[in-house]
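Curious: can you check?
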Amino acid sequence: MMYQYIIHSIIFLFVEYIIHVLGTYRLYKKIGITSWKIYIPVYNIFVLLIKIYKKPIWIWGALFLLFIPLISIIILFILWMDLIRSFGKRTKKDMILFFLSSGTYIFYINFFDKNLLFHPIENKKKENNTGILLAFILSFLIHTYIIQPFVIPTSSMERSLLVGDFILVSKIHYGLRMPMAPISIPFTHNNIINSIKSYISVFTWPYFRFPPIQSIQRNDMVVFNFPKDVNHKVIDKKDNYIKRCVGLPGDLIFIKKGILFVNHKKEKLISNKEQAYLIKTENVPLNVEYLEKEMDIEDIQFIMEKNDEYFYQIMLTEKEAIQIKNLFDNIIFVKKHILPMSFRENYIFPNNYGWNRDFFGPLHIPKKGELIKLDLKNIHIYNDIITYEKGKKINYPSKKYYEVKNNYYFMMGDNRHNSYDSRYWGLVPEDHIVGKPVFIWMSIDWNRKNPLNFIHWKLRWNRIMTTIDGKYSYLYVFLLFSFIYFLVDFYFRKKFPIK
C-alpha cells in the first residue's frame, strides 16, 4: 500500500507541476527567467520564490513542503496570488476572481493579458504575507497529520463526553492514516453547505497507514468514519463518529438484559454509562426542573399521566438513578427499561436475526487473516464484510471458507439506550479508524433544542483543559502560562517599541 500511495503522490505532483507551468510560463518570461529554468520541477518554483521574496530562510522549508501534495496546493495557491499581485493585479475585483476561480484566474492573466509589468511587492507586505502563510501551513499540517479538533453534537457518549465538549483527537496514536482526497478545501471535512462537497473525488489515493504508537484497547474511546455513510465514497471523508470500542478483532460479544458480555465475561463497570430508566410517581409530577438545573440531567421524556400516576423515561447512570429514588418521596419505582427478548427491534444488525438493543448476539468479530466458515445462517452477518472487501454481495456461499482481509471493531455509545452504534449498523473496518480522543480543551453547556442561542451558553469550567477521562485538569497551568506570556509581551513592546 505504501508504494501505491507514493506512486499516486508522484502522479499528482507531476500533474500539479504541468498545471503550474501552463499557468505561469509567460509570467516567468516577463520577470526575466530563462526558458530552461521554467520547466525544471521544484527548481522553477525556487527561482520564482527568489524573484518575488528575495532570499528569506523559509524558502527552503517551502520547497520541502512542496513534496507533500496537500500542502503543495496551498503553497502554489498563495504563490500564484502573490505572483499576480506582482504584476499589478491587486484590486478587490482581481482577488475575488482569483478566489472564485480557485486560482485558475492566473491562466487568464497568463494567456490574455497583454499589458503585464512586473512590480515587486513591498517588503512590509511580503513580511505580512509570509507570516500568514507560515501560520496557515503550520495549522494545516497539525490539523491534517497530528491532531484534529472535534465537537460532540449528540448525547450518545454521555456522561463520558457531553454535548458541547470540544475535544482534540490524536491521529498518530493508532497510526497516522494518510489523506485520500488530495483536492479539498482546507479545514473542512466533507461538506461545505448542506450536500455541497468540500472535496473532489475524481482523483483519490489508496489507503495507507503508518505503524501505530499503540493498538486499540478494549473500552478505548475511538473516532472513526461511519461505514454506512452512503453520501461519501472516499473513506476519510465519511461522517465522523465517536464511540467506545467494546469488541476487538477475534472477540465474541453478546448482550443479555442490557448487560454486555465479551468472551463470556461481563463487561467492566463504566461509571459514566447511561441507560434508559422508567420512573413512576403518584399524586405529584416529577420535579423535572430540579433534575435539569441541579443534577444536569437533560434527556427526560414524559410518557403519560393516568389516575394521578405519572410515567417518565430518563437517561441516567446507575448512581443518578439511586439518587433520584432517595430524593423524592412520591416515586413508586425507578427501574431500567429493558426490552423483552421476544421484542424484535427495527433496523438492528443484522436485520433478520430478531435481536434488539438489550438482547443481542452472540456475534463473532472477525480479524485479519482469519478463515470464517460460511453457511446460510451466518452469511447475513458477514455479507457486509465480504461486500466491502470483494465489492460484491453473496446470498449463497459458493465457498465454504472466506479469508478476512481487515481487522474489525464493535463500537457502542456509553449512553446505551440512546446511541446509534454497531448494534444497528455493524462492524467498523480498521481503515475507517481516525484517531484517539486525548483532551477536552473547551466545554459549553448550551440549549440542545436551540444550540445557536449564544446568550444562554454556559462554560463547564470543571471540564475545560482536562484529559479525556477527566482525571487531570490543566486549566490553571494554561492560565498561568498565558498570563506570563502577556506580561513578557507587554514588557518587550514597551522596552523595544516598533518604529
Summary: The chain has a mean pLDDT of 88.
